[in-house]
Design goal:
2 copies of one chain form a homodimer. Chain A is of the alpha/beta class. Chain A is 42% helix and 18% strand. In chain A, strands 4-14-13-12-11-10-6-5 form an 8-stranded parallel beta sheet. A 3-stranded antiparallel beta sheet of chain A has the order 1-2-3. The model of chain A has no long low-confidence stretch (mean pLDDT 97).
């Protein structure tokens, strides 16, 4: 079987909607947030823990797994699901974003991208076909087309040229991809230029994909500009296909994205700030490694029911982080992922109840007050 | 209540024995191995995971907790058990071993030891009374006397002088200690000199403690010399008191220690080598980070039923460790602690069945063959 998508409910006052994404590894309710397992592991966590905090579908990175341990090795292991012992759905990105982030370490041509490994400096070549080959070896449920993601700000001219190449690459991906139990999503580019977003969306829809991602946002542009791009771009994506906003995961952007019709998100934010000793709470971000929490014997977030909040104090978690103890960042990671995944649960509930706009307002009001 | 000890079974062919150590936080079966939670956490693990791998009693380090986060803070948190969310028995060492390991950073006098923190270089003073005060604040079930642990090799003269000071310090600890729900164990020193071991044991027994540790072994001397010291020292410890061999945890030494009448052990070895990518197996140590395991899709130890061996391959764990992913050392830590704690379970079973010597021989034969 391949992945299929059904919209089950539409909000009356916004573009928010509920859906079911059926994959060979189970069905997930959308809007969904996918925790990021860059190197075949959601950092610090076991698969059981990811599931316990509410994770149902994860993202893993083609670029990283291609370089280490290698997609051939993972294929020999029986695919990424078996290799990492995660039996839920996996989406893999195409490696495009990472390769283009390498800056001077890469060279782009019509054929593809030549780049040097960030690990050992060795030379590699990624093309649309190679990105498909690698993702087919990994065996993810959803593969992404190989795209170019221009930085912000970029000139209209460059973004235009780049999106047209991205469309040609998307076509090559579509033509090369053949794996019955893996779906292929296209990635819409176009920077912050509405007409270019429209052009990109229309070209990709013409090729035809199982889902459409909006890439190249949350790369440094003001949030309002991102929201405008969503307002403008989403209508060009067919109603019956999943819409995936790549690399977005802060609570405000998740809410604004859902309201604009986004079904899928991924982001390293919750797990990355956790490892820096910061946690998300109903009252905003709290830097638990700060000295003010040394003798604070309350939980990270008094309104949270995650494992960390049920069993440990800010004081203890701060001690662990200051002392370099791994359990500290395990607990902040568990908390942050639980927080974001619980937020998505409440978002789905609010859409179901027809009050997503009110929910957004109430949530953001408390979130902006600052931690207790 | 305070800690009490009962010998429940004695082996006929060796000094091995079974016992029950009752503490205010539960009863443990001896011989017991205590995982080390230096800074108030068994590195990388939650308390539930420690229990799942078979941990029943843990050790934590007075020196480290005194410096960070501070014993006063832990007292305010309700004691170490509550601070770290471990409701089983805890033994704290006295800080002596760590302070003396600081080398040029410390100065010894009859009154105590002046030392500099390894964290920030700040100056501190530890005396027998201070070591008691700190451990009473931590609220461990078993506290240890403040001792001096001479390095190996040391001159007979120095070891003699040092053990006599250790005896005087033990008396001061005994006099100062007052906490009804905390037991105090004395530490026998004397290096590798039988007469000095006897003198130390006799002086401590005269003062009278709830248990006796053998310190200053496994500090670089040949293993046979350690075994000789155990043969010689154990008979001077009253039969009805627990005997604790400090800092020992390799499979061979655990077996030889049990056979010589030891009831309690602690060691960082299983958790430390785990973090270096080495695991204990029935066929000896295996360095899973080595290249030869890159495509080895078998478990760490085919004979093991721990969480890591039931769910992951050598190939995946090696990938995680090479990629610097925390889950890698979580899995090797789980495996190594499970291995050692399971070994102790089998040891207790063998003593019960009267075949501990045969068990030792069989175990060591396979262990010396090298990994599959």
């Amino acid at each position: 079987m391949t992945t299929s998508f059904t919209v089950t409910h539409k909000d009356g006052a916004s573009r928010a909607r509920l859906g079911l994404l059926k994959t060979p590894h189970g069905t997930v309710h959308t809007p969904v947030f996918m925790p990021v397992g860059t190197q075949g592991t959601v950092k610090t966590m076991t698969p059981e823990e990811v599931r316990d905090v509410g994770g149902r579908m994860i993202l893993s990175n083609t670029y990283h797994l291609y370089l280490r341990p290698g997609h051939e090795l993972i294929r020999e292991a029986g695919g990424l699901h078996r290799f990492m012992n995660w039996d839920g759905p996996i989406l893999t990105d195409s490696g495009g974003f990472q390769v283009f982030s390498l800056g001077p370490l890469r060279k782009v041509s019509e054929e593809g991208v030549c780049f040097r490994s960030h690990i050992d400096g060795s030379e590699h070549f990624f093309s649309p076909e190679k990105a498909m080959e690698v993702q087919m070896s990994l065996g993810s449920d959803v593969a992404m087309t190989f795209d170019e993601c221009p930085p912000y700000p970029s000139s209209r001219e460059y973004v235009h040229e780049s999106l047209e190449r991205t469309s040609r690459w998307a076509k090559r991906c579509r033509d090369f991809h053949r794996k019955e139990d893996q779906s292929l999503f296209g990635i819409i580019q176009g920077g912050v230029f509405p007409e270019l977003r429209r052009q990109s969306a229309q070209e990709l829809v013409k090729i035809g994909f199982a889902g459409y991602a909006i890439g190249g946002l949350s790369v440094g542009e003001p949030k309002n500009l991102m929201y405008e791009m969503l307002d403008f771009t989403v209508p060009f994506i067919p109603e019956d296909k999943p819409r995936y906003l790549m690399g977005v995961g802060s609570p405000d952007c998740l809410l604004e994205g859902v309201i604009r019709g986004i079904d899928m998100f991924d982001c390293v934010l919750p797990t990355r700030i956790a490892r820096n000793g910061s946690v998300l709470t109903r009252r905003g971000k709290l830097v638990v490694r700060n000295a003010e929490y040394a003798r604070d014997f309350s939980p990270l977030d008094p309104d949270c029911e995650c494992y960390a909040c049920r069993n440990y104090t800010r004081s203890y978690i701060r001690h662990l982080i200051k002392a370099g103890e791994i359990l500290g960042i395990r607990l902040t990671t568990i908390h942050n992922l639980y927080f974001v995944l619980r937020l998505l649960e409440e978002i789905r509930e609010a859409i179901r109840n027809g009050n997503i706009l009110q929910y957004r307002n109430d949530f953001m009001k408390a979130y902006q007050e600052g931690p207790l």
